[in-house]
Each structure stands twice: as structure tokens, then as C-alpha cells.
Amino acid sequence: MAGKTLFDKVWDSHVVEKIDKGPNVLYIDRHLIHEVTSPVAFTGLERRGLKVLRPQQTVATADHNVPTTDQHLPIRDMLSRSQVDKLTENCKKHDITLYGLNHPYQGIVHVIGPELGLTQPGMTIVCGDSHTATHGAFGSVAFGIGTSEIEMVLASQCIMQPKPKKMRIIVDGNLKKGVTAKDIILYIISRISASGGTGYFIEYAGSAIRNLSMEGRMTVCNMSIECGARGGLIAPDEVTYNYLKGREFAPKDEDWDKAVEYWKSLNTDADTAFDLELRYDAADIEPMITFGTNPGMGMKIVDNIPDGSSLAENEKPSFFKSLQYMDIQPGTPMLGRKVDYVFVGSCTNGRIEDLRAFAGFVRGKKKAEDIVAWIVPGSKQVEKQAREEGLVAILEEAGFALRQPGCSACLAMNDDKVPEGKYAVSTSNRNFEGRQGPGSRTFLVSPLTAAAAALTGKITDPRDFL
Q1: Per CATH, which fold does 288-464 belong to?
Q2: Is pLDDT at 1 greater than 70 in this prediction?
Q3: How do residues 199-247 score in pLDDT, each as one tens digit?
Q4: What is the distance between the alpha carbons of residues 450 and 424, in angstroms, rounded to a whole number?
Q5: What dihedral do alpha carbons 399, 403, 409, 415 form, nearest 10°?
Q6: How far apart are CA 443 and CA 466, in angstroms?
Q7: How far is CA 295 from CA 151, 200, 368, 426, in A?
Q8: Band of residue 116 on the pLDDT scale cut at 50, 70, 90
Q9: Pick from 157, 194, 344, 366: CA 20 to 30 A from residue 431's CA?
């Protein structure tokens, strides 16, 4: 009998029913919700006279629309305040656990799930947010869903989904100095394009992936969606177990031993075929940066902007439109380009490891005078840890301030917007037109590259400081 992939093992064990020539009915272990995509789903439930079937398997937090300063005050923006209030009301009505503003567990939904131990290997996890793929770093099948699907999961704890194809991306070898998990995933997307993963669930493997911390693995899986994939996952191992052990909602005592025994079975069998397999050498990866308006438009920071000559004719109009929007010229270097804003945070790079990397880089140095920097922890727990470890003191000495948790400038739904025409060096996940504010221009980078830009006021190779 042919072996199974990690993805098959988790998916197949959660199939409640297979619809002939149709999707699978998939059981969902963990449902995460936030204030933006859930209100209409709850309204739909009430219209149909339904209750939440298993409220104990749903966890809510406020993250997208919340301000990152003065969180003790009422939210000024009326729409944001209304959405956060509605989430509070819906959770109370349906007996759902909510980590709202000022709760010690509040934060970005894809940061708090792992750090609280709510995210565990072998689970199916959904959320009304595309970057739910983050949780796949634990060997779970995790993906984003739409509002009507949120309603479906609230009502039935199940969802109808076609089973995706399977891709494995192997990255072997050792990363060079100054190269991070963010550079790995930006490199992969630059090679396969922003649509290269469409229709697939990606398993990441190889020695370079195994050598990443859990935070690094989450960064890689987080951006699976940016190459069009349905999600990404990594087989659990000792790194995973060590991260989870002792966390608030992780199994305890005998339950822990049983869980680990099961988790150890969650790997891809040796005799298993994937629909597509790609292999990369870690030694070829350097600090990366995007130059256009989708995450596939990425390059090594030391290279010149592509001239588009290798593109197919039908790809050229959008390529040059993108460069026009960014106001950059083909064939010119990225290094030395002046920038205005630096954003460190988001569900991609708002974890304690990211803040440690940034703070370690700027320690004993000074922020460039003309840079506006937003350093935003991914959760209240990350914020607390940053204070306890002395990172806040290091940041303040260098001219930076730590803001309060939230999605912040990742998506401009809150007060943290990059003004029109300004350039932002960002550790978030998307660089679409206007993503960080109407008319804003975004370069996606790692926390180290963001730190280098924050110190110099321009795009700088972080290795110049290392």
C-alpha cells in the first residue's frame, strides 16, 4: 500500500463524508475568529435560528481594526469600534472565549493561537483570514475561509472543501549569515511566482527548514498563501514539542505523553509521491526584498531591478504598471534607495524572536532622523516578554518606541497608515497597491533588513552591519 503525506494523514482523518464528484465534508478542531470577518456570519446564524454548535472549539480576539496606541481609551474610529463591540456581543451571546483589548492573551489571531498552545499538530484549523496558513508550521492543516464558511463552521463544526493537490518544497543546506526564514519564503515565491502554488497545499522540508525555530517556521507557512497555495505545513519534531510544552492550553501530564506519541506519527512516509516537488539550495538565498506590487516580485537585495525582458508578452503590461506605481526604474539598484517608514510586526514577523532580532541589530545605534518606525508586538504576551527581556529599553535608547499589539500597518484597517507616495520597508506579508494605505508603496523584507533601513534611512544590506 502506498504511503501517505503528512497532509493526507491529517486531512483524511478529519473527513466526515466524501461527496461524490464534489468536496469533502471536513471536521474542524479549532476555529479562530476576529472582529472583521465574523459579524455577518453571526447575523446569518441568528437569521436561521441557529446556535454555535461547539463554542468551546472557537476562540476570538480583536486584532485587525484595533489601534496600537492608547488601547485603554475607547476606539476613535466608529466602524472599528462597532466591529470590536459586535465581536464582544456575539461572543457573550454564544459563550465563546474572547481575548479582547487589554486582555493579557489579546493579540493577532495567528500569534496568540501558537503561543497559547491552542495550535497543535494534527489539527484542522480555520479562520476568516488568509494567513491562517501560519498554524501549519505545527503540522496542522490550517487555511483561511470566507464569511459564509465561518457561518458553516459555527453551525456545524464542519466545512465543505475540495481536497487540494500536494506539493513539497525542499530547502537543503545552511543559510548564510544575515539570511532568515523571511528571506527563504520571499526567495521561494520569487522563484515560483505569486500564483505558482495555486491549487496546492505545500509541505516544506529539508535541513534548512528543520533548522528553523518555530517562529521561523511560522513565518514560512504564513506566506504560503502569497504564492497562491491553500496552505503550508511542516512536520512536527522536537522543536515543535519543546515550543508547545507547558503552554497554557497544550496537553498536560499523561495527556502530553499521549499527544506526543501521536504527533510523532505525523510525517510523510518515505514511499510517497507528491503532485509536484521543488528543491532549492539554502546557499543560494540572500537577504531578499520585493520591488513590485505582489509578493512574487522579489529579488536579492544586492541585485538590480529586473528589466522585464525575460517575461512573456502578456506579463509585461502588469510588470511595468507595477514599476510605475512604485516609481522605480528597471535595471536600477534597490540598495541606497531612500525610504520613509519602517514597520516591524504582523502575523508574519510580530513574534518575540522578531523583536529580539530587531532590538539586537539596533542595540547601541540610533534610528535615522527622517524615518517613522512602527514596532508592533504581535500580542500582549510578546509585549510583556519584550519588556521583561529589556528589549523595550534597547529600542528606546536607539530612538524607537514599542507600540501595543494589533495587525497595525499590515493592512491599513486601523490608524497605522503609510501616506500616499511614501515608501515603507515592511516585515508584513503583502505589498499590493494601497495595502498599507491609499497610494502607499511597500517593500517586503526580514526584520534584519528592516532594522538596517531604520538605522540608515535607505535600503541597506543588513550584512553590512553584521
Answers
A1: Aconitase; domain 3 (3.30.499)
A2: no
A3: 999 999 999 999 999 999 999 999 999 999 999 999 999 999 999 999 9
A4: 9
A5: -110
A6: 21
A7: 30, 18, 27, 12
A8: very high
A9: 366
